[in-house]
Amino acid sequence: MKKKLIAVLILTGMCISNILAPVYASGSPYQGHIEETQTQPQQKDKMFTNEVKKLDDVEFIELTVSQVLAGTTSTEGDEFFAEVSEDVLAGSGVLLPKGTVAHGAIRNIVDPKRLGRDGYIELEFDYLITPDGREIPIEGGMTSKLSPAKSVAKVAGENIAHTAIGGVYGAAAAIELLGLEGAILSQGYSLLGGAALGGVIALGISLFRKGKDVLISPGDEIKIKIKSSAQIPVMTFEATRQKELAYEGLDVKITDICLEKDPFDNLNTITLDLIIKNNSKSDFSSFDIEMVSDLNNSYRPSIFTDYKNSLAMKTIKRGENVSGVLSFSVDNPKREHWLVFYDRRNHKPLAKISIDNAKKDLNITDLTKKKKKRK
For the packed helices 148-185 and 189-208, what is the interaxial angle rounded to 10 degrees? Predict the structure, then answer.
């Protein structure tokens, strides 16, 4: 036992001496240090311009609501979130990038009232969170309440319509009860009496008719004016570009984008004008091409197009250069989308082209203003 103990002590002493030898040799103990690099400043230089702005300078901001706000289910104090649906530009760059999240709460809910007066909701906002993680305190609010003039005009218009409809039904009822001969013998007074009675009944109903409950659905847009005393750095356009995926030999150029109506008259179809040079090792049919949103929803090319140059039912073969149109009916055109080309064997994405980047390159701020006649 003594020999083992002595051996352990000797080994321990040797280890300690080996560790401390360099320290004593240098005359000073080891000290940790951090090497400074220029990586972080370079990233900041690429992300921001040298400008700072206030949100007070912005006329209004468009937000897309991400949840249901209803007078029947929501309560005062409930918090909610909305997203900035378009880049807020300022100076030579972007003040608030698309996708910035606004946090808010319901300040007041007013139920619908008699005389057909609709309910309304009042919202207030307290801070923003940008995609790069910055939190910006704000003050702002909105209300869905109509102005007094618009509200009176709406109620009066609806009541007049109800009265007119009631008059028609009253006249019809008079003919049904007294017959056409009775109307002729009474020189039309029976019709006038029936119309008047029907109008009075309808007006009474309209006076007791309640307005509609307020309802803000996911995807609905609201416009707000907000204030913030914070000085916000302006981002470069390059910093707000979406990530893309390139596939060797496949060159896809978007030359125009517009928003059109689908066959059901909904303004939700994104139409792309494309020039595609396929020098890759893959063929691509319409089953290999999709539009994908930032919520990972996928949309197939629409076949309900009357464009002669539609690529919806064509195959883009290797070595082929084509130009044409692809349309996609999406849930919310305001969300971020990518045009994605897939490997048909395993459905893995080979190329992803950002629609938002193409809009920036084409200087498109409103898709509906880019409509044009096509053949």
Answer: 150
Report the distance separating Cα 169 and Cα 154, nearest Å: 23
Full domain range(s) for residue 270: 241-370
Sign of the dihedral through C-alpha 235, 236, 238, 241: positive
Same-domain status, 108 and 220? yes
Structure-block tokens of residue 59: 């006329």
Structural contact between residues 224 and 329, judged by C-beta atoms closer than 8 angstroms: no
Within 13 Å, how many C-alpha atoms sit on residue 354's CB side? 16
The pLDDT tens digits for 132-169 are 889 999 888 777 664 444 433 433 444 444 344 444 44
Q: Which of 249, 245, 344 is nearest to 289 (CA)?
A: 344
* 46 Ramachandran zone, left/alpha/beta (phi>0; psi -120 to 50): alpha
Question: Cβ contacts of residue 300 below 8 Å, gap of 6+?
Answer: 286, 287, 290, 328
CATH number at residue 316: 2.60.40
Asked if residue 12 is part of any domain, the answer here is no
Give the SS3 label for residue 283: coil
pTM, full prediction: 0.65
In this structure, is residue 72 part of a structural domain? yes
Residues 344-375 have pLDDT tens digits of 999 999 999 999 999 999 988 777 754 444 44
Q: Tokens for 303?
A: 């076949």
